[in-house]
Amino acid sequence: MCMACGHPQAPGHWTEAGAQSPGARLRARAEAAGVLDRLLRPLGLRVDDCHPVPGYRLAHVTGAVLIVQTPEDLWQGVESLLGRPYDPLHD
Fold first, then answer.
1. pLDDT at position 30, please?
2. What is the pLDDT of residues 7-59, one digit of tens each?
3. Number of domains in the chain
4. Helices 71-82 and 22-40, interaxial angle, to 10°?
5. Beta-bridge partners for 47
């Protein structure tokens, strides 16, 4: 249970496999958020890890903000904020 927000702790995601401690898991999430942020910046989007809230914060230059739980949810959020389909492998 998150002491800050009261949400249950999210289970680990497969992208965090190999994290041997809670600190290593947090570092893996922060690193993933950095990679996603660099990828999405040209689209006017920002991504950061929502410490201590489970998930990622996805923000658009218009001021719209979404909190998403997993990287899979993040891509749906990107499409929602852009208002169009987005394929990260083609852009």
1. 84
2. 555 566 656 666 677 777 778 888 889 999 999 999 999 999 877 667 889 99
3. 1
4. 30
5. 58
Do 29 and 16 form a contact (C-beta atoms < 8 A)? yes
Q: Is 37 a domain residue?
A: no
Domain range for 60: 44-91
Tokens at 68, concatenated: 């998403």
Place of tokens 């950095």: 34
* CB within 8 Å of 1: residues ≥ 6 apart: 7, 8, 9
Tell how strand 56-60 and strand 65-68 pair up. antiparallel
Which residue has tokens 């959020």? 77
